[in-house]
Amino acid sequence: MNPNQEESPYVFALPDLFEIADDGAQIKAARCNSCGTFFFPAYHEQHRPDCSRENVEQVLMSKVGKLAGYTTQYYMPPLPFKTEKDITPYSIGLIDFPEGIQIAGIIVGSEESELKIGQSFETTTYRLYQDDEGRDVLTWAFRLVK
Amino acid sequence: MRDVSIVGVGMHPWGKFPEKTFVDLGVKAVGDALKDSGVPWKAIQAIGSGIYIWGGNAGHLSGQYLAAAFGETGIPIINVYNACATGAAAIRTAYMSIASGEVDVALAVGVDISPAGFLGAKSDDPKQDRDVLRWRMVGMPNPVYWAIECTKRMAKFGTTEEDLARVKVLLSQYGALNPNARYKKVYTLEEVLNSKMVSYPLRLYEICATSDGAAAVVLCASEKAAQYTSNSISISACTMGSAIYGDPTLRISALSAPSHAEAPLLSESYSASQQAYRIAGIGPEDVNVLELPDNSSWHYLQYLETCGFCGEGEAEKMLRDGETVIGGRVAVCPSGGFSSFGEAIGAQAVWQVVEAINQLRGQCGQRQVPNAKVAMAQTYGLMGNSATTIMKR
């Protein structure tokens, strides 16, 4: 699932949400230095009431967090969810990052029966499909830290 | 503020009606509500109408389209959208028009024809609409959100798959007795537990379908209600709530939530219900009939806590002990709930009120809640919005 970037050209399914890191990926969020709120994506601002909304900075999230909640989806959602083929069943996890924010994403490499709340997961990428130009179209995903 | 009463209710049964338009459904509901109230169409002085989001420009002006069918009279028609709370927002619009003293009689209506299958995104710009992100990047239909909250609950309180199935078993018994319900089959625990998994741990029969339907209510200043009917029910509170900063719920559309709770789960519904209790001077201990938004079995359990009917982690026990049955401490969804009706976004909050009124009037036959005096209709709502209506005989 984690593409070999050396050989395979890739493109993000949507921009400004995550970055490729040496050994996986990091989610791009933002932090308001006035009220302390983390938010994701960085372009959907959220603040504590009465915050001045000044000094917002983009931050890269920690790579690893803990599973706070999850599900396994047994029916393919309609477009605009696009994958190469029917990928059901696929699991979705809500990962609790040390920054104080939980982020949802597809879980790769684990069966439903292996999932337990509290397990450590690292951020990686997942190839949704290949576009017309042969590029891997990527989203972020989470993989169990073994 | 003047006291306001509901003097008439009407609805189109829930189901799938591919041969009908939203106007067809709405005309049936409004026509029945007018007839039930004794209020002539020309006496309606304001309309609050739920926006039908799948209906293009017409759906966004649903009130105008419905009024045209009955004969346009020049009155204010306000079309409102608040996701699952849309119908309650329409009722509140009508309610406020009367409570403020501007008019004496008003109509509220909600109509919906749902698209088939999972509800999808309605725009394609992720910078403006978070909904685009959850679909394109993670593939998250609404039940995924409910399932994630449900696994959190299971880990925290030990909720079992049997608890989730038990909700459907109970509601199917009530739906079977409701002529307006879409699903009338009674299920056993085994049948529910053997139904297909949709979003673990939620199974097919534990998630509401999407339906077509319409409901309408006629409201009148309480002091003038006797002019039209001897069957009026007063509204004790008609409130709306929005989310509170620090709410730990992974809200539909969002891809993130705060790790540390600084507000209750489902804070918008907590807010709406707390406001209603304060205004009505009525608490959950006084409520005989509760129509809550059972979009899934998780909702049924969670809303009992969110609205203060039991403490945190106690809903499963309340259900197992039979406190939520007709004849129990509080009858929960004696209509059969969304479980038996399916959701029809723009219409369902009005329908919840219609079911509550039928109970307070004592018109529910075999599923009548004995001695029902106080009823509460509670909505869910996308993106942090919710409504509560408390009614009293």
Chart the SSEs and their pairings.
The complex is a heterodimer of chains A (146) and B (393).
Chain A: E1 10-12, E2 18-21, E3 24-32, E4 38-39, E5 56-60, E6 64-73, E7 90-97, E8 101-108, E9 120-130, E10 136-144
Chain B: E1 4-15, H1 22-37, E2 47-50, H2 56-60, H3 62-70, E3 77-80, H4 86-99, E4 105-113, H5 130-138, H6 142-157, H7 161-175, H8 189-193, E5 197-199, E6 202-203, E7 212-221, E8 233-242, E9 256-258, H9 267-280, E10 289-291, H10 297-306, H11 315-320, E11 331-332, H12 337-341, H13 348-360, E12 374-378, E13 385-392
CATH architecture of the largest domain in chain B: 3-Layer(aba) Sandwich
Contiguous uncertain segments of 5+ residues of chain A: none
Order of helices and strands of chain A: EEEEEEEEEE
- Major sheet description of chain A: 5 strands, mixed, barrel
How many strand elements of chain B? 13
Q: Class by helix and strand content of chain A? A: mainly beta
The name CATH uses for the topology of the largest domain in chain B is Peroxisomal Thiolase, Chain A, domain 1
| Widest sheet: strand ordering of chain A | 6-7-8-10-9
What is the count of helical runs of chain B? Answer: 13
**Tally of structural domains of chain A:** 1
Structural class, from secondary structure content of chain B? alpha/beta
Counted up, domains of chain B total 2
Order of helices and strands of chain B: EHEHHEHEHHHHEEEEEHEHHEHHEE
Query: Helix proportion of residues of chain B, in percent?
Result: 25-40%
Description:
The complex is a heterodimer of chains A (146) and B (393). The mean pLDDT of chain A is 94. Chain A has 146 residues and is mainly beta. Chain A has a 5-stranded mixed β-barrel with strand order 6-7-8-10-9. Helices cover 0% and strands 47% of the residues of chain A. The two termini of chain A are 17 Å apart. Chain A has one domain. With 393 residues, chain B is an alpha/beta fold. Chain B folds into 2 domains: 4-115 and 212-234, Peroxisomal Thiolase, Chain A, domain 1 (3-Layer(aba) Sandwich), CATH 3.40.47; 130-209 and 236-392, Peroxisomal Thiolase, Chain A, domain 1 (3-Layer(aba) Sandwich), CATH 3.40.47.10. In chain B, a hairpin with a 6-residue loop joins strand 12 (374-378) and strand 13 (385-392). In chain B, helix 1 crosses helix 3 (62-70), helix 4 (86-99) packs across helix 13 and helix 7 (161-175) packs across helix 10 (297-306). The model of chain B has no long low-confidence stretch (mean pLDDT 97). The chains are: A mainly beta (146), B alpha/beta (393). Chains A and B meet through strand 4, strand 6, strand 7 and strand 8 of A and helix 5, helix 6, strand 5 and strand 9 of B.
